[in-house]
Structure formats: structure tokens, C-alpha cells
Amino acid sequence: MPARRTTPRDEIFAAPKPRAADFEFGRETAEVFDDMLARSVPLYAETQRMVGELVADFAADDSNVYDLGCSTCTTFLDIDRVLPRERRVRFVGLDSSPEMLQRGREKLESGGFARPYELQLCDFNEGLRIENASVVLLVLTLQFVRPLHRDALLKSIYEGLNENGCLILVEKVLGESSTLNRLYIKYYYDFKRRNGYSDLDISQKREALENVLIPYRLEENFQLLKRTGFRTVDVFSKWFNFSGVVAVK
Predict the structure, then answer these.
(1) Residue 4 pLDDT more than 60?
(2) How far apart are alpha carbons 118 and 101 in whole angstroms?
(3) Residues of the chain with pLDDT > 70: what percent?
(4) What local confidence, expressed as pLDDT, does residue 234 receive?
(5) Which fold has domain 27-248?
(6) What does the buried/exposed string (b/e) look like for 209-237 if buried means 16 or more CB atoms within 10 Å of the residue's CB?
(7) Domain-by-domain residue ranges, the chain?
(8) Minimal CA–CA distance to 12: which of 30, 117, 123, 224?
(9) 18: which DSSP letter?
(10) Residue range 134-144: mean pLDDT, rounded
């Protein structure tokens, strides 16, 4: 059995900080990122399972599966468990953080990932090229792309997708009204407290993300996908202010 590496506990915002610096995906975050996701994203394990099942149905032989914002490559490992062994698919992971990519390489090696893959450094605000893709993943990534660049990014994805290929989008979203939005945020912070985060953790991370994570309403994401050209857009997962959407070309 490949050796398993224990993920340190996320305590980045556990102690008071002198000032609220913008959230970064550097070394400190990469080391605890798996724990951060598990404790900060509702239904994370189930969403990952659902993503893997969708990929297994859409991934076509002799095509590429892209993960934009692949971070530590957990999603590739989860897909590997459900994708048929005989499926001839190449995995391409892109991320803006060298530290995340290094952690991803280590996890793929220790996890015994035997499929062809490539990991690349990429700033999604500056554009990218997608080629021969049957599946493209944006799992908790688009929300970190500046709104000014989101249409161009989705256009690049659409142009690089093969016919009947799909984009899988998982995002934190705003409620459709101010009342619902306040309630969803309250439920979300309660969720984080249940997972061991303190009020200090929550408030300091919220401040750090304020200028970095810019969510849309679910309907705004639908409109973005539709105007890009996707013929079918549907919700496959929803938990208050988190949603999973699949869009088919």
C-alpha cells in the first residue's frame, strides 16, 4: 500500500493577526489545505464523489480531463477510484500556486496514481488554452477569478471542450435575496463552528477573503454559462450557499 501522509490541522487563523492580509494559496495554506477543505466546505466528500461519477460518465477515450485550480490533486485521486481502468484519459491539472502543485505531485505519487497526467502553473486571470477536453473542472476556483476575466475564461474552456463534453462548476454562491443570504451565511458559520473553528478563525478568514473570493448568485453563474454557449446547464448539488453545476456543450 502507498504511504499516506497525515494532513496537519488548519490553524492559520486561530491566533490573532496584526492586520488582515489577503488570503494566499502559498506554502502555509498548501500544508493544511486538505483539512481546510474537509472542515470548511459543506458536503465536501459527497460533492467529490458526485464529481467523480460525472467525470466517469463524460470522460471520453483519447481525450483530456482538466482540473482548473487542481490545488493538491485530491480530485484526481477521487476520480481515479471510479473511472474504469481501461479508459484512455489524460489528466491536466492547472493551478496558480507552485506550493499547491508540489503538494499535488507528492500526493499523486504517494497515492499510486498511475494514469498519464501533467501539472502546470497558470494564472487564470491571464487566460489559458484548453485542448481536446471531454471534461473541465472548476471546483471552488471560478470564485477566485476576477469577474472582469470570467467570461474570457469560460469562452476558452468552451472552445477547448469537445462536443458533448462538460464543465463541472462548484462554487460558493450568494443567496437570491438579502434575507436568504444572511441566513445562509449564518448556517455556514454554524457549520464551521461544528467543525472546530472558533469565532476568531471565522472572522479573520472572512476578512482575508473579502477582496479575493467574489461569489455570484447561482442565477448569475447560469447566465454566464448560457451566454458562453453551453446548451444544457443543471444543478447537481446544493447546500445553502454552496452549489454544484454541470454544463454540457
Answers:
(1) no
(2) 10
(3) 98
(4) 98
(5) Rossmann fold (3.40.50)
(6) beeebbbbbbeebbebbeebebeebeebb
(7) 27-248
(8) 30
(9) S
(10) 98
